Amino acid sequence: MKFLIIIPTLNERGNISIIYNKIAKLHKKAHILFIDDNSIDGSSQEILNIRKKDKKVNYIFRDKRLGIGSAHKIGIINGIKKKYRYILTMDCDGTHDPKYIEKMFKHLKENDMIITNRFLTKNSINGWDLRRKLITKAGYYLVRILLNSKLDSSGGFRLYDFKKVNFKHVISAKNNGFNFFFESTILLQNKKYKIFEIPIVLPKRVSGSSKMRLSDLFIGFYGLLNYFFKRLR
Q: Which of 22, 122, 179, 196 has the fewest beta carbons closer than 10 A?
């Protein structure tokens, strides 16, 4: 089955070939769209090298950092224009393992969208440092308390069936950064789409460094509160 995988990149040169090789081994019919936000480590050249040997790989190179949410939006719009029904999004840092994709598709038959949950399996984030664990858990429980959602809505490893989901409902999420994930998920949940979660174990990043800045945390917290108060009006 042909489907599109969207992979945003920002200084992920050491991980690009690794994730490509894993996908190519497990899902030979998958098409890949890399969206690079002006990496300075040679990521774009790595993508071009892969493109030379595999025409199922495409790319969008942007001239500055526009945000991971923005990358997801432009990737989805591009996929819809090219008539892809199934679009999957994932990170390039090695924490999203392509081995879960087959399971995601199995559950998509009865659902509209599949997301992954880091809290359905015990010790799923054991390899992470304490700071990352606290940030992730805080985000999960804040969404649960403020927005009354039990979904692990801040992750980017997700699969859409765009024959069932109106793509405009996804890209209508206003945030272009990390808040895009919870915002788009809650929007779809409120529109009564069938969202199913599968448990996932997330290993620690091996190469490169996290792109989340301190400012992203403050923006994320502010965005959650703002979204909460808007719902009260």
A: 122
The boundaries of the domain holding residue 180 are 3-232
The arithmetic mean of pLDDT across residues 219-232, rounded, is 62
46 vs 18, 33, 60, 230, CA distance in Å?
Answer: 11, 13, 13, 43
User: Rounded distance, CA 62 to CA 54, Å?
Assistant: 21
pLDDT, residue 101, reads 97
Q: Is the pLDDT of residue 7 over 80?
A: yes
Question: With a threshold of 0.85, does the pTM exceed it?
Answer: yes
Q: For the domain that residue 148 is a member of, what is the CATH number? A: 3.90.550.10
φ and ψ at residue 139, rounded to 5 degrees: -60, -45
Half-sphere exposure of 52 (CA within 13 A, CB side): 7
SS (H, E, C) 135-146: HHHHHHHHHHHH
